[in-house]
Amino acid sequence: MAARQERIEFGLSETGAEAVLSLSGALSIRTVSVLRQRFAALGFDRSLVVDLAGVERIDTAGAWLLVDLEARAQAAGGSFGLRNVSDTTALLLDNVRQARPEREDRPAAARGIQALLEQIGRAVVGGLRYFADLTGFLGLFLARLGRVLRHPSQFRLTALVAHCEDVGLRAVPIVALMSFLIGVVLAFQGSEQLRQFGAEVFVVDLIAISVLRELGILLTAIIVAGRTASAFTAAIGSMKMREEIDAMRTLGLDPGVMLFVPRILALLLMLPILGLIADFMGLFGGALMAWLELGISPSMFVTRLIEGTGVGHLLVGLVKAPAFALIIGVVGCHAGMQVKGNAESLGRMTSGAVVAAIFAVILADALFSVFFAKVGI
Amino acid sequence: MSEAERDAVIRVRGLKTQFGSHVVHEDLDLDVYRGEILGVVGGSGTGKSVLLRTITGLQTPAAGEIEVFGVDVLGRGAVRDSLDDRWGVMFQDGALFSSLTVRENIEVPMKAVPGLAPDIRRELADLKISMVGLPYLAGDLYPSELSGGMRKRAGLARALALDPEIVFLDEPTAGLDPIGAAAFDTLIRNLSQSLGLTVFLVTHDLDTLYAICDRIAVLSERRVLVTGSLADMLEVDDPWVREYFHGPRARAAFADTATGTED
Questions:
Q1: Domains, chain B, ranges and CATH?
Q2: Of A141, A159, A143, A134, nearest to A262 (Cα)?
Q3: What is the pTM of this model?
Q4: A8-99 domain in CATH 3.30.750.24?
Q5: Which residues of B touch A36 (CB under 8 A)?
Q6: How many beta-carbon pairs under 8 angstroms link A with B?
Q7: Chain B residues near residue A61 by CB distance under 8 angstroms
Q8: Residue A274 belongs to what H/E stretch?
Q9: Residue A288 has pLDDT above 90, yes or no
């Protein structure tokens, strides 16, 4: 019964040219470590016989040990025999003997500086290939969009509306709250600094320009990238995993038209609206804080805003929205299509898509900034 | 009957399982004897896998007793825990730990054995890999890199890691090609003979039933409708059982085995 505590007795009697090793007890996975140490000390200069008469239980680990000993004895040129082997044990020994794995070595991996260089090279090529893939995917989306424009009957309006609700409407609370808080923080921090110069009223310009030009749309895009890119990847990836996309293809339905166009188009439509909401809420938060902290009344804030800030700032901000929407949508859908047949790759791709989308949005924003600075807007 | 004297390693009495208001088993009795291969069959949704999960303690029944080696599966404490290395379970898709290689998967149960040297553990894992018919290098692969059949084999290797006395197999041959399925049958039969293994296997595969099962239990109408050898099954006067064992697929499988044994 007690499987946890097993004993093995070990006796060696040497008579002339023959060494008899008698074992009694359990020859099992629990005793095999002890036995192996004992076996290691055995020499094969005379013929070795193992007597199993006293063995009550033998499992594959025990059988493996005997077969291993046999193989070592034969390799050393000694003779080896077993005595008092029951039928079932013989069958077990046969099974283990047949199954005894041949060691194979894997091709050795390169080490040191060469491996490092190889890794870097692979990463660079992988990155370039990924970029090329994304560009290809953008092309695919535009081509499918063009096809839908020529054949409006293929367009899935219901899907577009559903995605608009998901991507746009449901993101309004989080986007609004986030940019309201950003406005509050800007006003608070700005007023602290500007008060030193007695230039409190410039806090309006500070808030307006930073929210309208940069923060409103950038932070909205980052939140949407986290929310939507992951949702796209997860939805398309799980469809890919369950071969739904292959089924679509065999039914003559184009995944580009069915899945990518409605999603990315929904983002294209919704992100500018979300950006506008973010701009408005940012200004509102800033105005509230300026009123409470600096005593700038709302009407004064509005006057100052209209006088000091051109509508150009708003346009500079919002013109970036479609570009961000394309980036998020393309990265999300592309990652979904890269999912393989298992759940790990779905998880990896989903988190990868979020990181890639956020990074790409920030990179694009930096490029926009440089561009606008150069052209002087 | 001599069956009453035989050593029942699994004893299920008056089992009732239900999910919400849906009763899966009611008043279910089943005995599994030492050293036999029991095939559990039944239509889809008759709770074959649920029975397996209940016996292994993964699912708590609404009523009834389950004893394995005379130990109450539903109990707690050290005696109940000692069951864990006396049985092994192979789940339908292998249920391998995805973050570990095949070899590491098989080593997981072995790590619980006190004093087992790591190099021996590794070699034993390699032996198990080879015993279930996987190539040596498969040990270094991750489950996601294996085909369905290989995952099943690796799952069996993990279930057998500690040489348990009972293995539970959930649809061992589902999704395998006929050659792979036949090899799997032979493997189970062989292991059962040489290790004195008791096998509880849930299957839909008539070939497996004919080739290796000593006894068959039919689940129907929420209980074990009938148990017995294959010959007994052919005599049973129940519409479902008759259709199952006299259907065209059953006849084909039976004919194959019959000619196979004559040769």
A1: 2-232 (3.40.50.300)
A2: A159
A3: 0.72
A4: yes
A5: 117, 120
A6: 79
A7: 120, 124, 163
A8: helix A261-294
A9: yes
Q: Please report which confidence band the pLDDT of residue A79 belongs to, taking 50, 70 and 90 as the band edges.
A: confident
User: pLDDT tens digits, residue range B1-49?
Assistant: 444 457 888 999 998 888 888 888 888 889 999 889 999 988 888 888 8
Percent of chain A with pLDDT over 90: 52
Report the complex ipTM: 0.80
Contact A92 B163 (CB under 8 A): no
Contact A36 B120 (CB under 8 A): yes
pLDDT tens string A22-70? 888 888 888 888 888 888 877 777 788 888 888 888 888 888 888 888 8
pLDDT band at B149 (very low <50, low <70, confident <90, very high): confident
Three-state SS sequence of B87-140:
EEEECCCCCCCCCCCHHHHHHHHHCCCCCCCHHHHHHHHHHHHHHCCCCHHHHH
What's the pLDDT tens digit per position in A117-145? 999 999 999 999 999 999 999 999 999 99
As given in the structure block, the two tokens for residue A80 are: 């080896």
Q: Report how far residue A189's alpha carbon sits from residue B220's, in angstroms, rounded to the nearest whole number.
A: 74
How confident is the model over A77-104, as a mean pLDDT? 81
What are the start-end ranges of the H helices in chain B?
A: 48-55, 78-81, 102-110, 118-131, 148-159, 178-195, 206-212, 230-235, 239-246, 248-262
Joined tokens for residue A351:
């988190």
Distance (Å, whole) CA B48 – CA A42: 51
Per-residue model confidence (pLDDT) at position B257 = 61
Chain A interface with B: residues with Cβ < 8 Å: 3-4, 28-30, 32-34, 36, 59-61, 64, 88, 91-92, 94-96, 99-104, 106, 340, 342-345
Q: A326-359 burial, b for 16+ CB within 10 Å, e for fewer? A: bbbbbbbbbbbbbbeeeeebbebbbebbbebbbe
The answer to whether B209 and B178 have CB atoms below 8 angstroms apart is no
CA–CA separation, B22 vs B25, rounded Å? 9
Angstrom CA distances, B246 to A307, A357, A377, B225, stand at 92, 60, 85, 17
Domain ranges of chain A: 8-99, 127-375
Distances (CA, A) of A13 to A16, A19, A20, A42: 10, 6, 5, 12
